[in-house]
Specification:
With about 180 residues, this protein is mostly beta strands. Helix content is about 10%, strand content about 70%. It has one domain: Porin, CATH 2.40.160.20.
């Protein structure tokens, strides 16, 4: 799985560089701060879920930014007589290397996150349930883009993979942010 992540990150960097061939100056300066909210769709090895995340972004230098974010995803899956509901809570810190493009930026991202995954299951619709929970660390990487609406408001889209000890999760996100 680590090999897959390495290949994915290399390809993401190549795509980001290719998209930045026609660059323009973008208002991403050292000290800039932003907040954002994303709607998420998560795909794992055995289930799909949806959720929301909030993030705070801080530009350390002109091209380097860090982001702290918190997200909650929930989903359900039925297999025969068993129904499973999952909740994925995640707090992560990511680094971004921003590449200006026309009307925005694209960037590869990488980081670590702390995850609390819980699952509740029932069989044949009976109210008796079994609940299990797990806490883990994960590494994540992907590519994201911010597209300016005006000097303060921007839209965002993202593709990210998180590697946890028993598998990986792919998140696709769209959102909105405010720069102040």
């Amino acid at each position: 799985m680590i090999k897959f992540l390495t290949i994915f990150l290399k390809k993401s960097a190549i795509v980001a560089i290719a998209l930045s061939v026609h660059t323009v100056v973008n208002a991403q300066n050292a000290g800039d701060k932003s907040i954002g909210v994303n709607l998420l769709a998560g795909y794992g090895e055995s289930y799909t879920d949806v959720g929301i995340s909030a993030k705070f972004l801080y530009n350390i230098t002109d091209p380097i930014r860090i982001a702290g974010e918190y997200g909650i995803l929930t989903g359900s899956k039925s297999e025969g007589i068993v129904s499973i509901t999952t909740t994925w809570k995640d707090f992560g810190v990511y680094g971004h290397y921003m590449i200006p493009i026309s009307n925005g930026t694209v960037y590869p991202l990488a980081g670590i996150c702390f995850i609390n995954l819980s699952a509740t299951g029932s069989a044949l619709g009976f109210s008796a349930t079994v609940t299990d929970s797990k806490v883990a660390f994960a590494i994540g990487g992907g590519v994201e883009g911010n597209f300016k609406n005006n000097d303060n408001l921007f839209y965002t889209s993202e593709l990210r993979i998180k590697i946890v000890d028993e598998g990986s999760r792919t998140h696709i996100a769209v959102g909105i942010g405010y720069r102040f």
